[in-house]
Amino acid sequence: MGVRSWKPNEEILLANPVEVVGGKVKKPGKRGRKPAKIDLKAKLERSRQSARECRARKKLRYQYLEELVSSRERAICALREELEMYKQWCMAMDQGKIPSEIKALLTGEEQSKSQQNSSRHMKAGKTDANSNSW
User: Fold this and answer.
1) Which pLDDT value is given to residue 59?
2) Which residues of 61-89 are buried (b: 16+ CB within 10 A; e: fewer)?
3) 95-112 per-position pLDDT tens digit
4) pLDDT (0 to 100) of residue 102
5) Of 23, 54, 62, 71, which one is least surrounded by beta carbons within 10 A?
6) Local structure of 113: helix, strand or coil
7) Distance separating alpha carbons of residues 66 and 85, to the nearest angstrom
8) 110 phi and psi angles, rounded to 5 deg
9) Residue 104: C-alpha distances to residues 100, 101, 108 (Å)
């Protein structure tokens, strides 16, 4: 029988496999940072501060949403009033009456159309004058 020589380095390497990466010895097992003993008071204070910030963000979010709801409610009221006005105009027109607001709108459109037509005629006259200058 042969006597085997004992090599301490081999036994240690087999019991605790070690990996050398970039000149640093890394042992297998848990990855990442090892949890250091964190001061409990500091941890509690950070937790409280985080909770305060969370409540402040929540408060701002609710304020924003309340303002948004109130602005939408105001818009709804304005649209209801406008709808009621149009209903009254339709009822008046069904009775053969033309509301003064509609008359004003129609006369305003007629005036704008007449102004547009007169400006078109003036432009047409200028183009005719320019074409005759040849």
Assistant:
1) 98
2) eeeeeeeeeeeeeeeeeeeeeeeeeeeee
3) 999 888 888 888 888 777
4) 87
5) 23
6) helix
7) 29
8) -65, -40
9) 6, 5, 6
Confidence of residue 8 (pLDDT cuts 50, 70, 90): low
Task: Give the C-alpha separation, 28 to 18, whole Å.
Answer: 7
* Rounded distance between C-alpha atoms, residue 83 and residue 89, angstroms: 10
**Contact partners, residue 98, CB within 8 Å, separation at least 6:** 92
* Domain ranges within the chain, ordered by starting residue: 40-107
Which helix or strand (DSSP H or E) is residue 133 part of?
none
**Amino acid sitting at position 115:** Q
Structure tokens at 69: 């709801």
Residue with tokens 């004003």: 104
The residue whose two tokens read 């309340």 is 66
* Residue 82 to residue 34: CA distance in whole angstroms: 68
